Automatic annotation (TrEMBL):
This is Exodeoxyribonuclease III. The record marks H253 as: Interaction with DNA substrate. The keyword Hydrolase applies. Keywords: Hydrolase, Magnesium, Manganese, Metal-binding. Its EC number is 3.1.11.2.
Length: 261
DNA sequence: ATGGCAAACCTAGTTTGA
């Protein structure tokens, strides 16, 4: 039963031991990483090669950066929008997207969607612009194949996906403009894998380092796996693993795992 | 309204995160 996971590690070099321990204990087949914060030349490949994973990364110094670890070698690996959408190549200066084929008719897309900064700031509008680019990109892909779209979306899709939805009109990650663009992407034919199995509120994938947010479970569910119908039909389970968030010096995000039969 | 924490960067204070 293949397992596919997504995890914003907030620096792969700082979190190397956590990720290795987690791979050893869960044995996931594919792990999509975000915020690796390292160039491809500096990416710590060897510990993953030693564990039998192939490493595909697209990173930059200090900020952003995505990677896919896979037990099998992957075909069709492409970084950024440009290979599918040359018109949007300016979005590729920030390393936030990598994709690969899992099968001839299944494409895995790993994204690190911009944070958005303050409401109505330049960063907020960049986030909205980036989401429109992602929509155009996925429109092409969903016409060709089944797609597993995962990563750090920096968006809580519903009010039950954050601990306090008050004032959300200006709360970046929960505004209507962001949710509407995410809904437009979802309407290309995606289903929220986590919500296929769990309806209750109070399940989060990110907690602020400050103010005891994790201890008080004051978090947001912003890390997602979106799957097209044929994948959904094979999905057995999708859960957030909060165990790594309890460790000393954790990432502020927890991994999310999808199991497929 | 602010701070609280963590990481990276030409090491000290700035930028980013959501």
């Amino acid at each position: 039963m293949p397992k596919i996971a997504t995890w914003n590690v907030n620096s792969i070099r700082t979190r190397l031991d956590h990720v290795c321990q987690w791979l050893d204990s869960t044995g996931v087949d594919y792990l999509c990483l975000q915020e690796t914060k390292v160039t491809d030349a500096e990416f710590p490949r060897q510990p993953f090669l030693d564990r039998g994973y192939h490493v595909y990364c697209s990173g930059q110094k200090a900020y952003n950066g995505v990677a896919i670890l896979s037990r099998q070698p992957l075909a069709g690996v492409e970084a950024g929008f440009a290979p599918q959408l040359p018109s949007h190549s300016e979005l590729d200066t920030q390393k936030r997207l990598i994709r690969a084929q899992l099968a001839p008719d299944v494409i895995l897309v790993n994204v690190y969607i911009p944070n958005g900064g303050e409401y109505d700031s330049e960063k907020y509008h960049y986030k909205l612009h980036w989401l429109k680019g992602l929509h155009a990109y996925l429109q092409k892909l969903t016409a060709q194949a089944e797609v597993i779209l995962c990563g750090d979306f920096n968006i809580a899709p519903e009010d039950k996906d954050l601990f306090d939805a008050r004032d959300r009109a200006t709360k970046v990650g929960a505004t209507d403009a962001e949710r509407n663009l995410l809904a437009a992407i979802r309407d290309l034919g995606f289903h929220d894998a986590f919500r296929h199995f769990t309806n209750e509120p109070g399940h989060y994938s990110w907690w602020d380092y400050r103010a005891g947010a994790f201890r008080r479970n004051q978090g947001w569910r912003i890390d997602h796996l979106y799957i097209t119908p044929a994948v959904k039909a094979r999905a057995c389970n999708c859960r957030i693993d909060i165990a790594p968030r309890r460790l000393p010096k954790p990432s502020d995000h927890a991994p999310v795992i999808l199991e497929i039969e």
